[in-house]
Specification:
The complex is a heterodimer of chains A (141) and B (191).
Chain A: H1 28-74, H2 76-89, H3 95-107, H4 114-139
Helix pairs in contact in A: 1-4, 2-3
Chain B: H1 6-14, H2 21-40, H3 43-59, H4 70-88, H5 101-105, H6 115-130, H7 134-145, H8 150-157, H9 161-190
Classes of the chains: A mainly alpha (141), B mainly alpha (191).
Chain lengths: 141, 191
Amino acid sequence: MNKLYDSEKDPLLKYLDPERIEKAPENFTGRIMSKITAEIAIAGNTDRLTTKSRVPLISVIVTLVLIASAFLLRNVESVYSFHWELSDYIPDISVSRFVDKITYAFNSGIPEWFPWLIVSLAFLVLVDRALDTYSQSRKNI
Amino acid sequence: MEFADDISCIGQILEGNINAYSYLVDKHKDRVFNLAFRICGNHEEAEEIAQDAFLKAFRALKSFRRKSRFNTWLYRITYNTAISLVRARKRHELSIEDLPVEFIEFNPDNTGINESEYEYRSSLVKFAMKKLTEEERGLISLYYYEELNTEEISEITGISKNNIKVKLFRARQRLAGIIRSIEKKNLVCHE
């Protein structure tokens, strides 16, 4: 024994015997392991549900942002007013050149929505990759 | 399933072998259950506390710093869980008059040190421990049953080493006093 008190003179040692402890009930380990297994299964299902619901949610947000942007950029006048407002804050960025290129692309044979479709698809692929990596790392824990 | 030590077992669990945790539970369940029982004083709650402690330990296994021993870390979780539960379910104070009749019917002078005397002492301690505060019960249990030193008890309870010495001294005195008064009553009854 460690100790702070002389074991010969400690009257409590007669009553507190470390060899005679209260034992855990039968099948204690089994019950703990069942709870852990159930907990892991529930956590897995919640993860899958969260991951699944994230993709459509992000898709909806991205689509709404893109529609709003397309609507804003459709009118050249509003494009330039947008450009001037932005230039007030970030004067070094030449937004007009970018806008001109987009306007040129819109005026050529390519459908108006096509560049947005490409951007949306690229973005969704990236999001999907990121969520997949996250989901895999959670499974390995 | 056998492991060289707790740390190698924890490594296995963190690598995804969840079943390896049953080795840790099996190895420490009795000590954890005993600590919980000594603090709360009844088997049902002790089982609840011990289960809760093992589940908490499993969830927090990633945060276990391998500098300390696994059992010390597990005892800390058990101690805190038990103290919280007992404080949340505070019971009425026991008086010596509440002592069950079977304690008084035993006369230790009539028999040698045998199983019935162990039973008597065990029941006596269980009753006397209930008269202490939950913190005192925890300290007594860690010191006597788990045979830990003040440094380890300090690590588990978060109380400073010097404070542990003071609190332990008082708890021992109180426990010895309660046991003495019960035994005195016992002797009076048998005279």
